[in-house]
Every structure is written in C-alpha cells, then in structure tokens.
Amino acid sequence: MKSEASPGSGERYQLDAEHPWPCLLSYEERSCDFFYGRKSEAAELLRLIRLNPLTVLYGKSGLGKSSLLRAGLFSLLRDHRDPAYLLVYCRLDFSAEAAYSLLEQIAEKLRQAMDNVGAEGPARNSGEGLWEYLHRRNLEIWSKDNFLLTPLLVLDQFEELFSQSGSITDRIAQAFDDLAALVENRMPSELAGAAAVERRSQLDLLSQNYRVVLSFREDYLPDVKSWEKKVPSLLRNNYLRLEPLTRQSAIDAVERAGAAVLEAGVAPSIVDFVGKLDPDTEPT
C-alpha cells in the first residue's frame, strides 16, 4: 500500500494489485477496484436516495460505512445519469472551536466538490446561506459532459456531534436545526421577515433539488432518533442498517481483491483469523 501525506485528513494511500487492502483505513473512491462484497448495499442506498430527501446509514463500528459510501456508493454514482449526482462528502467539525456552522461547512464542501469535478454553476453571494443558495430560482449545476447535477450531501461519522468532548445541548440542537432546514425544506428564519421579501422573490421555496445522507455508528441511533420531532424525516422508512458480511461474502471479497497475491485456498483462513470466526460456523 503506497501512502502519501494529506494535511488534515490523515494518511492517504494508493491501492494496487500488489497492495489491495487499506489495512485499518477505510477505502476511498479511487480504491473501488479493490472493494468487494457490498454491491447490494450500494444499490439499496441508491434506491433510498432516489426516493427520499434524507437517507440514513448506520451500523456497528468497523463494518465499513465510510468505505461503502466512498468506494461503493460513490463509484456507482459516478456513472449514474438519471439523475446525475454531484457527490459532496462531508466530515464535519462539531467542536466548540469550529470556525463555521454546519451549513457553512457543507457549503464549502459543495464548492470544493464543484471545483474538483469541473462542474459549472453560480457561486454563492456574500451573506448567502446554503439553504438560500440551493433554493435559488432556476439554480443549475452542470457537469463537464453537460449533465444536470443533483447535489448529494453525505454527512459521514455524524456520531461525532454527540461524542465530541464538551458537547452541549445547545450545539446539538443547532446542528439539528440546520439539518431540519435542509431535509424538511424549512425556510431559515432570516428569510422569513419583511426585510427579506426581495431575497425570497429570487427563490423557489418548494424546490428540493438535492439529497442528504446521514451516516453514523449504531450505538448513536437513539441519540439521532431523539430528534424525530424536529426532523420528521427521521420517522420514515429511509434507513439502511449495515450488517456484517457473511463468511462466504467475506471470502469472495478477499479472493477477488487479492487475486494477484494470494495462493488458492488461503482466503478462508484470512477471513477466520481477522473475523475470529469458526470455520464450521454457518454464515450469518
């Protein structure tokens, strides 16, 4: 596994046929050629995303939620055209020292995603919030090959909102206010008054031409669901629980990724060692 420095994001790596696994790191989108075993889960995520403004992915720690999103879902969506998606991966800073609000951080990630893929679309005006920008009348973001893009805002490791040292109720409540504005299409208070009549006239208040994915560890599911009154979309049938791979699926994934370096018949031993599984145990 070849690695390279990446300021602020930890070690980065480049997988190849001789180094097909990222060890304890998650798979990135560029590692998709070595990511196996989660095709059905990626397809189910896509189905939920197409049907719902908000899709929720959760599962136990270590099952590969981030890998599924980046190497599974994102690689699937790069070639998706009905609709085409602008993939916006967000690992947000929920700390008390965060320089920007949740929505401002997402807005910056959106701008970076547009730049990274050469998408064409209007820049935000000074003082224009993310909700206002996304609800501009006739807002269009186009790919380099002339497909209209739907922003897909992926908020990964959302449990960090609750696990940050010093997390307080007010900061958590503000984060869910921001989330509710996006997924419930709830107009921010600064756009509701008489002073904002002109700004509102430039908006399509009923449009919601974007999608949101929330991903977090399963042990924080009760914390997230406690905010259902503020975010009613959390009550919908829009959840995907990531289950452990079956033993056979894990063996197949190891064999396919490691085809260039593994001897025949070695994969089951690797899976049993890593997963501490009994070879005679029925797949779960």
Please tell me about this protein's structure.
The chain is α/β, with parallel strands linked by helices. The protein has one domain: Rossmann fold, CATH 3.40.50. Helices cover 34% and strands 13% of the residues. It is built from ten helices and seven strands. The chain has helices at residues 39-51, 65-77, 102-117, 130-134, 160-163, 169-183, 197-201, 221-225, 247-257, 267-275, and strands at residues 2-4, 12-14, 54-59, 84-90, 149-155, 211-217, 239-242. The chain has a five-stranded parallel beta sheet with strand order 4-5-6-3-7, with helices on both faces. A two-stranded antiparallel ribbon has the order 1-2. The chain is globular. The chain starts with a strand and ends in a 9-residue tail after the last helix.
From the spread of the alpha carbons, the general shape counts as globular
**Uncertain stretches:** 1-10, 277-284
CATH architecture, by name, is 3-Layer(aba) Sandwich
Physical arrangement of strands within the biggest beta sheet: 4-5-6-3-7
